[in-house]
Amino acid sequence: MSNQEKDRFKRVDRAIAQVRKEFDEVIDESREAGSEAREDVREAIDDVEARIDRLRNRPDE
């Protein structure tokens, strides 16, 4: 294999490594956003549940 061919493969390897790195970063950001969204949903459900409990436990009028 010529040096020129070796250089091409090295560039391809670097490009693939860069794509992999950026893809991993996107996955990490997505996981973080998903985690935050899950927490927001849990808090909303807890709030709704608390409101229902207050309605259920209020004295009859």
Beta-strand percent range: under 5%
Instruction: Name the shape in a single word.
Output: rod-shaped
Cα separation of the termini: 90 Å
| SSE string | H
Number of strand segments: 0
Q: Low-confidence runs (pLDDT<50, min 5 residues)? A: none
SS summary, helix count: 1
Computed Rg: 26 Å
The percentage helix is over 70%
- Mean pLDDT reading: 93
Largest beta sheet, briefly?
Answer: none
Structural class: mainly alpha
Organism: Halobellus rarus
Protein name: YtxH domain-containing protein
Question: How would you describe this structure to a colleague?
Answer:
- This protein has 61 residues and is mainly α.
- The chain has a domain at 16-56.
- It is 90% helix and 0% strand.
- It is built from one helix and no strands.
- The radius of gyration is 26 Å and the shape is rod-shaped.
Primary descriptors:
YtxH domain-containing protein; mainly alpha; 61 residues; 0% strand
What secondary-structure arrangement, pairings included, does this model have?
Blueprint: H1 3-57
Organism: Halobellus rarus
Protein name: YtxH domain-containing protein
